[in-house]
Amino acid sequence: MKKSFVFTFLLFCVMMAVMVSSLSAQQEGRNKRIGTAAATELLIPVGARDLAMGGASMAVSQGVDAIFWNPAGLARQTNAAEGTLTTMSYIADIRVNYGAVGIVFSGFGTIGLSVKTMDFGEIPLTTNDDPENLSGRTYSPTLLNVGLSFSRAFTDAITAGATFKVVSEKLGRVNGSGFALDLGVQYHNIGGLKGLHMGVALKNIGPQVSFEGPGLLRTATSRDGRRSEQFYSSKAASFELPSSVELGLAYSRSINESLSWTVNGTFANNNLSLDGYRGGGELGYKSGSIGFAARGGIELSPTESGVDEQIFGPTAGFGLSYAAPGIDLTLDYAYRQVDFFSSNNMFSIKFGF
After folding, report:
1. How far apart are CA 291 and CA 239, in angstroms?
2. CA-CA distances (angstroms) from residue 176 to 210, 211, 303?
3. Residue 204's domain spans which residues?
4. Which pTM was predicted?
5. Any domain includes 23
6. Residue 266 in domain
7. What is the pLDDT of residue 29?
8. Residue 345: Cβ-neighbour burial (10 angstroms; 0-12, 13-18, 19+)
9. 197-238: pLDDT as tens digits
10. Quick one: which H or E segment has residue 142?
11. b/e sequence 126-157, b meaning 16+ C-beta within 10 Å
12. CATH number of 66's domain
């Protein structure tokens, strides 16, 4: 009981410190460093179940779905092995694809591997000499994130996890590379209160992303000596990762053997964008080996004037699950309203053995 009290107190102190730093860093409701981050694809959500709840479920996200939201939840997967595949129609005809697997090693912990890619299609290549693309040439940016996760349960209530991510970006003949680290903790049944859960995550911590490649070469003549015109490499600026500290609470209850519900709330302190406030919930029904869930949520980024700067609006979705002999199958769908662009649609399929 004493250890649980100390752990709860420390989490409360972290929460208060983050909120105070947020108020001082984002005076007048704005962050002057918005738009200066690299590798912002790290922020694009994956996992239809959690997205349908507005991304607010980091305190209860579990299994391979939790790798993105809070790696501590990976240790709570209910199968010896799990895998998931996710695809989402993002903005401007961009498609996001994601896959992950998680394997439980008894007495050691759970290890996960995840891969996220973005498909931009073929983009017409225009230049100063060919502004109308009469040549018909095209190019396609390549953005790839690969993550290796480890999560472990220390008690029935407390789990912790980490994800090491490699970031690779390529646009034409210029490449960007870097790495990031996610750290997370989940504390279920806080202080012995059944159904009350808390999650804390530090996401995208790491050095600045650097850029290089032959696309940065420029021809010039040296001022010193008698060298002829030759290639010189332009040194590209490095940019910070979009790191954040996220704190979440959730409360779950079972109405009877078939019906259950969960409400979630999350506060995200972002270093290179406005802070986010997320809320969502889930109503679940289970009959025998078949389950159904309805979900909804929203994320807000209000400024001092009260205007919400978040272009992503309310979310909704559902999930269907079937426990077959030897395998569990789950299909999740999420819808997210978007300003100025077509709405996002995400499908996820998860299987467990």
Report:
1. 45
2. 6, 4, 32
3. 39-352
4. 0.85
5. no
6. yes
7. 46
8. middle
9. 999 999 999 998 888 888 777 777 777 666 777 776 777 778
10. strand 142-153
11. eeeeeeeeeeeeeeeeebebebebbbbbeeeb
12. 2.40.160.60
